[in-house]
Design goal:
By secondary structure, this protein is of the alpha/beta class. Helix content is 41%, strand content 19%. The protein is built from ten helices and ten strands. Helix 6 links the parallel strand 1 and strand 2. The longest helix is centred in the N-terminal third of the chain and has 21 residues. The protein is globular, with a radius of gyration of 22 Å. The N and C termini lie far apart (66 Å). Bound molecules: S-adenosylmethionine (SAM). S-adenosylmethionine binds next to loops.
Length: 300
């Protein structure tokens, strides 16, 4: 095949590939997004130098096609993200949700906090959460001092607290960038001077997330389509991910998130997303113009 020639994608082949993508990662390509899917499939086919989309499909479902399948899924994801995205919602997270959880946990002498950023893309969301948690902890202990002196320099998280922010994605390339934690001036546009000074080092013309912040965040691969997802979270952020799933898949995911949360835990979804009509197991919390969903506990 000449490299400029691209075989025709028949309706039957498109349906097969659409179904495979849906089955593998939950992403649903309706008529509005079929063009995008076709374009990405053509690119991958050219790269693999195959002569038909049916051969490409056969490759994807074979044992040796596992790597190509992950390459295709990476090519289909939308990775747009930013630091401090949806400020009103983050205010609700910091001022109400986190403050309440810290108080409640301290009363019970439970000093562990676990937050999961599901679909974290290049890391701006989990690092934003880490900075907000560090600030909240400092402010909380300014008002409620610990009965002993903290060692100097003060750690971001005072003992005996253990904070874990798990950040996951289906794309290995975004996870690599997130783990590196180095951002351009353009990517830093939502980060004000105070945060830049405290939580970043300047490296050439870019900004690197400080080691102490990185230590709070743990990156891992998780496909939200699978059943085995991280458990025992106090808070889950899954923003701007569900919008690429159809309603059936959204319902399944929200059900899984319910099980992945601790009792009374919180779920934050994107600005254009909502749990309305998907579940009765969460109640909406709306304050400071931000929205979150809290797990409803069944009384026995
Ligand atoms: C638009 S970004 C959102 C990033 C961030 N949560 C935010 O709101 O700024 C969506 C991310 O979800 C990831 N994603 C899509 N489908 C996924 C799946 N089935 N499992 C895990 N991550 C997925 C994509 O790779 C992408 O990085």
């Amino acid at each position: 095949m000449n490299s400029s020639e691209v075989p025709v994608l028949t309706d039957a082949e498109l349906k097969l590939l659409q179904a495979l993508v849906y089955q593998e990662c939950g992403m649903h390509f309706d008529e509005r997004r079929t063009h995008f899917l076709q374009d990405r499939l053509q690119r991958r086919l050219r790269e693999c130098q195959l002569d038909s989309f049916y051969s490409y499909y056969r490759l994807l479902i074979s044992e040796e096609g596992k790597y190509e399948l992950s390459r295709l899924l990476e090519n289909l994801t939308v990775n747009e993200t930013s630091f401090f995205r949806n400020k009103a919602q983050l205010d609700l997270f910091q001022r109400e949700v986190l403050e309440g959880i810290l108080r409640h946990k301290q009363d019970r002498r439970d000093y562990s906090l676990r937050i999961w950023s599901a679909g974290c893309s290049t890391g701006q969301e989990p690092y934003t959460l880490a900075m907000l948690v560090a600030d909240s902890m400092a402010y909380y202990y300014m008002r409620n001092p610990l009965p002993f002196e903290a060692p100097l320099p003060k750690p971001l998280v005072p003992a005996p607290w253990r904070v874990e922010i798990l950040a996951s994605d289906i794309s290995y390339s975004v996870l690599r960038a997130a783990q590196e934690g180095i951002y351009t001036e353009h990517q830093m546009s939502g980060v004000d001077y105070g945060y830049r000074l405290r939580y970043f080092d300047k490296v050439g013309d870019r900004y690197a997330v400080k080691k102490a912040v990185k230590e709070l965040v743990h990156f891992d691969f998780h496909n939200l389509k699978t059943e085995y997802l991280p458990q025992r979270n106090d808070i889950i952020f899954c923003r701007n991910v569900m919008m690429y799933f159809d309603e059936a898949e959204q319902k399944r995911l929200v059900e899984k998130f319910y099980r992945c949360l601790n009792p009374h835990g919180y779920l934050f979804v994107g600005h254009a997303e909502s749990l309305l009509g998907l579940t009765e197991k969460f109640q909406m919390v709306h304050q400071h113009s931000g929205t979150a969903y809290q797990r409803v506990e069944v009384k026995v």
